[in-house]
Amino acid sequence: MSIGPDAETTMKIGEPALLSRADPSASQFRRQVLAGFAVYLTAAAAAWWAILNLAPDHITVKAFGHAYAASDIRHRLLTRGLELAVIIPGVFIIDLALAGWRDSSLYRLLVLRTPSTMSDLAAFLLWRSRIWNTMILILSLGISLLSGAYLHNWIKQHAGVSLSLAWMSIPAQCVAFFAIYSFLDYWTHRVDHSRHFWPLHRFHHAAEDFCVFTAVRVHPAVFTSVIITTIPAGLLQVSPAALIDVNLFVMALRFVIHSRINSNFGWVGRYLLQSPVHHRLHHILDMTQPVGHFSLVPLWDRMFGTWRGEADQSLVIGVDTPYQHGAWLAPDLFRDYFDFWKGLWPFRSRPAAVLEHFQAKWIPVRVKKMR
Ligand SMILES: [Zn+2]
Ligand SMILES: [Zn+2]
């Protein structure tokens, strides 16, 4: 299967980029977009100051004979505001400035509106909706309720050891927790590519081209975020401030690596933080080679032998399983969920096969994309 640029890719992506890097109008466009964003950030900073200094932190409203109270308002506004008003628009704007209008994520969302991009948009709306956590809870059969704090107390009671990062400063906790998070994320991502878990992760890889929102095109039955965030955070007593900082940073990085920014980030992308181009190689449609680039931190890939070297923006991405795509996600989500349980079915009558699979094949996990 071809992995280079071809007519089909051009057709999917649309017209060639209006602005190339060599074009002087491209740098002028980039400067204008970034200057506009700088003005926007100044306004956002003013709003931040206003919330911190002027907004009430606690409100009680009396209506219909009842008192309705809301607390911790400033903190909630700032966290949600940072995510929705700074991080997400920021990645879209940088993507627009660096990729040019005709090759940007915004162009895909607003003009091309391909079925795959509409799935990305629907996945984003679902992810931001109130039913998302409930869907994870139901589809993962309650696994998302597992508590790291309970584990912490259990170890403390039975082994007399209190695992904790709380003695560190907030910046040190952020670095330590991100290192732990990225290590666990690397291994759970490899498990996602194993034969039995692939049907759930396949939905993410089904995107036919990158758009910033591809980052949150995730099947709601994927419960690995519980293992890599909730449990270690509770187990290690990570402070809420550090947890929020790392979550926001990881969210921003995930949006960036699914953007259309044509960059390998130089030495940073080779060792510290994954680049959009390297993540494109992870999503490659060609299934004849083992998949690599699992981690947000390339050092883990290098350490465990899954670093696959350099990549480029022209690689064709996707899976060869047919997807309906479009804004109505239900058929694709249900088919993948059914495939997941169908794949586990033979194990129900052969417990020894479970043992054999996890003993002999779990490490190294199969890293080829499954069909
Ligand atoms: Zn993957
Ligand atoms: Zn991805």
Please describe what this structure looks like.
- There is one protein chain.
- The chain has about 375 residues and is mainly alpha-helical.
- It folds into 2 domains: about 20-100; about 115-360, no CATH class.
- It is about 60% helix and about 5% strand.
- The chain is built from 16 helices and 2 strands.
- Strand 1 (about 60-65) and strand 2 form a beta hairpin.
- The longest helix has about 30 residues, at about 25-55.
- The two termini are about 15 Å apart.
- It binds zinc ion (2 copies).
- One zinc ion binds near residues 204, 258 and 283.
What is the compact description of this entry?
The chain is mostly helical and 371 residues long. The protein is built from 16 helices and two strands.
Sheet of most strands: 2 strands, antiparallel
Determine the N-to-C terminus distance.
Answer: 14 Å
What is the mean pLDDT?
82
Domain tally: 2
* Attached small molecules: zinc ion
- Percent helix, as a range, is 55-70%
Number of helical stretches of at least 4 residues: 16
Radius of gyration using CA atoms only: 22 Å
Task: Enumerate the strands of the largest sheet in spatial order, edge to edge or round the barrel.
Answer: 1-2
Uncertain residue segments: 1-20, 359-366
What fraction of the residues are assigned to beta strands by DSSP? Answer: under 5%
Which SSEs are present, and which pair or pack?
Elements (H helix, E strand, L loop, with lengths): L6 H7 L10 H31 L3 E6 L2 E6 L1 H27 L5 H8 L2 H14 L3 H8 L8 H12 L10 H23 L5 H8 L18 H12 L4 H18 L8 H6 L4 H7 L15 H6 L26 H20 L1 H11 L10
Antiparallel strand pairs: 1-2
Helix pairs in contact: 2-3, 3-11, 7-10, 8-10, 8-11, 9-15, 15-16
The structure holds zinc ion (ZN) (2 copies).
One zinc ion binds next to helix 8 and helix 9.
